[in-house]
Amino acid sequence: MQRKMQELAAGVFVQDVPHVKLTPERLNIEALEAETIQGSFFIESMNQISMQGIVLSDHPRMQIHKAEFSGTSAEISYEFHTEGLVEGDIQKGNFVLICNKNEYTLSFVVSIHKPQVTVDGEVVKSAMDVAVLARRDYEKAYELFSSDLFFTIMEKESKECQFDMPPVK
Q1: Can you give the pTM of this predicted structure?
Q2: 26: closest CA among 97, 105, 112?
Q3: Are 72 and 109 members of one domain?
Q4: Are 113 and 40 in contact (CB under 8 A)?
Q5: Same domain, 43 and 78
Q6: 134 is in which domain, residue-wise?
Q7: Sheet of 62-64, strand order
């Protein structure tokens, strides 16, 4: 104890710090339009030294359920809100962990997609897929054709097929 007090008086501060591991090292999240995605990541002290800290997000759509953590390992739960985002949007951000006077960063990328149309477990992405479905099961194809989902398929296909026509002379 006397040696410790002498070290402190001399300005020598030796403190064991945890070797922090984040799992996964980067988050790649795929989400649908107007959806709330929930997930989690793990913080672990590789040398079994107890940690105490807080997690923050630099993105306004990313919320952390319980920001404080302590112990030798912790699971951090989050949710990402996609309301107002459309297919093709990509949102990037970071979780910032402040732990035992150190700072760690966990990056995340959220990609927004439209819901896929499926019939009998098969994805229907184009008019050709609808034609194949009609040959196999006319009733289901008609049901799809009569729904709003068919408009979604055709809208996506028309965007993919746009091209510039030369002027007519």
Answers
A1: 0.67
A2: 105
A3: yes
A4: no
A5: yes
A6: 117-160
A7: 20-23, 36-45, 73-81, 62-64
